[in-house]
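Task card 7
Instruction: Convert sequence to C-alpha cells.
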Amino acid sequence: MKKIKIGLVGTGTVAQTYAQVFQSSHLCSLVAVADIREDVAKSFAEPFSAKVFTSYEKLAESGLVDAVIVATPPSTHFPVAKAFMERQIHVLCEKPLCLSRAEALQMISLASEKKIVFTMASKFRYASDVIKAKSIISSGALGEIIQFENYFTCSVDMSKRWNSDKKISGGGVLIDNGTHSVDIIRYILGEIEEVIAVETGKVHDLEVEENVRLLAKTRCGVVAVVDLAWGVDKKIPDFIRIYGTNGVLCVGWRESKYRTYSSSNWVIFGKGYDKLKAFRAKVENFCKAILGKEKLLIDVEDALASVEVIEAAYNSLRQNLWQKVRPFSVAR
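Output:
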C-alpha cells in the first residue's frame, strides 16, 4: 500500500513523539519538515531524508505532501492550517485548535469547502485506558454516574516557555491542559452546557493563569471537577476518577482499575497512559480517515466544542460567574 506523504510544521517538544510514530508507521512517511529554525529542522529531518523548509508557506506550495501535522504554538494554528487547506492538503492540528470560535468556524468551513480531512490532535481520546473506561461506564457496571474528576497537576516553571506568553499561547494552564480535560469530559459524559473557572493562586507570577479549578455541567446532569496546575504537584496516581451509584473507576498514569461497591476487589483493566501508543493511534486514525477506512475519532464538532468550552471558561474566569457554553453548530 502506498504510504501517505506527510509534512510536519514545527519541530519542538511535541514533534519528538511524532518522530517516533513516523519511524515505524506502515501508513505514512515523513517527507517534509518546516521550521523557522533551519538547523533544528535539518537535524529533525535527517533520519527521514525529509525535505527541509524554513517557512510553512513554502512547504504548502511545494506539492510534496498529501497531509500535514501542525505542531506549532497555538497562535499560529489558524494561518498555518489555512495555508494547507487552501491547497486541499489534509490537516491534523495540535490542540488547542485555535484561539477563538471565529477562527475555528473558518477552519471548519474551509475544510468542508475543500473536502479535506481535518481533525484536532487531543491525545487522551486515543489512550486505550480512556477508551476502555468509556466502555465500562456505557455497560452500566458503575450504575448512574454521580461525580467525575480530572487532574492534570504538576510543578513546572513555564516562565521561559511560549506557554506563558499570552500572545502566543492564548492563555495559561486553562487553554493548555484544560483543552485535554474538555475533550475527555465530552468523550465520556457527552456535551458540556455550562462552566465556571476559578484561578487558585500563583507560584511563578506568570502573566497567565497557573492554577485553575474548573467545573463543567454536562447535558447528562453530571458536574465534572477539573484541577489544572503548573504550580502544584498533587502527586495523584490517577488523572480520571469516576464515581457511580454502583462503583468507582480510576484511570491512572501507570494502572487503571474499577471496583463495584459490592466487592472489595479492584478489577485492573489497563496499564496506564502510554503516550507513544496514543500518538500512534491518532496518526493512524487520521491516515485511515484520509484513505476512507475509518471515521475520525475527533470530528470537527468535537474540535469546535473544545474551543467553545474553553472560551466560555475564560469568560467565567474573568467574571467569576457560571457561563453557558454557546451551542456549537457546523454547517454541513
